[in-house]
Specification:
With 65 residues, the protein is mainly α. It has a domain at 25-64. The chain contains two helices and no strands. The longest helix has 20 residues, at 45-64. The two termini are 15 Å apart.
Length: 65
């Protein structure tokens, strides 16, 4: 599965070339996780993470269509 590339790409020659930044998939998952934490109560952090990445994957797929 593609990760969507970097969410915040670095500028060549300006930013640290050793730092790639977070992927777009990670960014989407983080945003989804914020919503899940705000709106729902989960006893298991693994459930939150799994659902966040499931939604992030769906968002990346929708971008390809």
């Amino acid at each position: 599965m593609k990760h969507g590339g970097p969410a915040f790409p670095c500028h060549p020659g300006v930013d640290n070339p050793m730092y790639d930044g977070m992927t777009l998939r990670d960014y989407f998952a983080a945003k989804a996780m914020q919503s899940f934490i705000q709106d729902y109560v989960y006893d298991n952090s693994d459930v939150i993470a799994a659902r966040a990445y499931t939604l992030a994957d769906a968002m990346l797929k929708a971008r390809e269509e």
